[in-house]
Structure formats: C-alpha cells, structure tokens
Amino acid sequence: MALNTASATFYNDLSLLKLNQFPCGSGPWRQLKEPNYLEERNPQEETLLSLQELARSEVWKIEEKWSDDISSLRNLAIKKPKLLTEDFIFSHFKCLRLIDKGINELDSGLLKFKNLQELSLTGNMLKTVAGVNLPRSLKVLQLYANRISDLEELASNPPPQLQHMGVGHNYLTNITSYLRPSTWPFLLSLDLSYNNLANLKETVDCLVELPKLRNVSLMRNPLMLVPAYNGYILDRMPQLTILDDVSISLDDRLNFTKISTLELDWNAAIFSITFPCVSNLREPVPN
Which is nearest to 151 in space by CA: 182, 122, 125, 180? Predict the structure, then answer.
C-alpha cells in the first residue's frame, strides 16, 4: 500500500485553493493603488473590491468543506497576498477536516499547525495514531471509521489540551491501558461507540478515573449486552451528564443508586430479536 500522509493530503487540498492565481495573489491583474476616477483606468486591472466579489462568484468559488478557515485565508490572499508565507498559512488554520482521503499515516508535518484546535481524520485508513505528531494546541480530535485497534501510540503523548476525542467505528477491544488521568486531564467528551469493547467493569473502572469526563458514548459495543449496563455506569460515574447521546436526569440516577455494589453476573447478556414480518411459514399442526 502506498504511503499517504496527512500533511501530503493537506498540501494537495491547499493547492486547490489557488491562492496565487486570479482572483487571489499579487499578479498583474491587481490595481496597485486606489482608483482615481479622474485618471484613465487600465481595463486589465481589478480593484480590491471587485477581486473579492469575483472570489465569491460561482465561477471562482472554491470548495470550503474541509476547513472553516478557507474563506478568510482566500480573502487575505486578495487583500494582503505578501502575508501568505508557509508559516503564516499553517498558523492561520484552526480547523481541518481531512475526511475520506485514504490517509494511512499521521506524520510529523502536522506539527506545523501551531494554532490548530479541531482535526477530523474520519473515514481514512489509519491503524495507529502517533500522539507525538499531533499539534499541541488541539482540543477536538475525530478519528471515526478508521482501522484503529489500540490507542497505545496516541496515549503515549496526546495533545495536553484535548477536550473531545471520537474513535467510534474502529476495532478497539480494550482501553484500560491507555486512558490515564495524568495524560488526559481535560477530556470532557469521549466517543467509543461501534467498537469491540466487551468488559463493562474494566472499561468503567478506566473511565471513572478521568477527572473532567462528562459525556461518553459506548453504543454498539458488546458490553451493552450486560443486563445492568446503564445502571452500572450511572452509579459508578456520578459526574456524567450524557450517556450514549442521551442526557442523564436525576430520576435516572435515583433509579440505579448502589446498583454497582450488587453481585452482578458479568458473563450474562441480554438482547432482543424483532421480526417485523414473517411469511411463507407452514401453519402449525393442530393438537
């Protein structure tokens, strides 16, 4: 499999912004001084205002889904193109969404983003995520629908300010060795849905140690089949306000008070099967 890094993907997307091409950049199409209507105007030159209007037109409009910062960057490429050095461009971005790009390696090139706060790498081909290569300023990290089976490399040096992490739709079977309060001191929200977590007690023992955690999702993991799933989590984690995308009420907590102290069968499971329609079956033989 060919190497496809996150930073190479960014450079490719950046090139599509055409920051040095009309109507952006400092080409001969720019009118270098404010228009004086008493002087004859060069018809090949455009005013700053007209360039900004052209950049927003359907003809020159650029895809902006992969970052909330693209519009302001293109505007600067028109107003002050000489500012746009590589360092300036990297420091400008606070949000990146590199989604469904076939990325299979998180390289150190991302460390150039000194002000990046939100990074989405959803729908790629990552098997591991090297925390040491993530920007230190990061607060939101989305890693949904990759091929991640453990968080060892991420947990060894995660961004210290991280507040939300989404690792749903992966292949995690265990988190107990990776989520320590000393390395995740500000984590408020954690999405672990659609993985292969099977041990409810060990998982909750780990989550309860995270001091700031208020929102957790464990939907569609095997551990949901444990009969006391909801009650055990609510009793063990009184700081939670949202579980599996549902707000927790006071009544919910009162209903499950001290359930975690009871003797529970951790090898039991409960589930239901619903058949919306059954056809072509033989009638039962009458007694």
Answer: 180
Is residue 186 pLDDT above 80, yes or no? yes
- Residue of 75, 96, 77 lying closest to 85 (CA atoms): 77
Q: Look over the chain and give the mean of its residue pLDDT values, rounded to a whole number.
A: 87
Task: Flag whether pLDDT at 76 surpasses 80.
Answer: yes
Q: CA 141 to CA 163: how far, in whole Å?
A: 8
174: buried, middle or exposed (CB in 10 Å: 19+, 13-18, 0-12)? middle
Nearest Cα neighbor of 186 from 162, 218, 155, 214 is: 162
The 8-class DSSP code of residue 98 comes to -
Q: In the chain, which ranges are E strands?
A: 95-97, 118-120, 140-142, 164-166, 189-191, 215-217, 242-243, 246-247
3-state secondary structure of 207: helix
């001091």: which residue's tokens? Answer: 211
What SS3 class is residue 71? helix
* Amino acid letter, residue 110: L
> Distance (Å, rounded) from C-alpha 230 to C-alpha 138?
31
Separation CA 60–CA 232 (nearest Å) = 56
CA distance linking residue 191 with residue 164, whole number of Å: 8
Which pTM does this prediction carry?
A: 0.85
Q: Which tokens is 145 given?
A: 């629908």
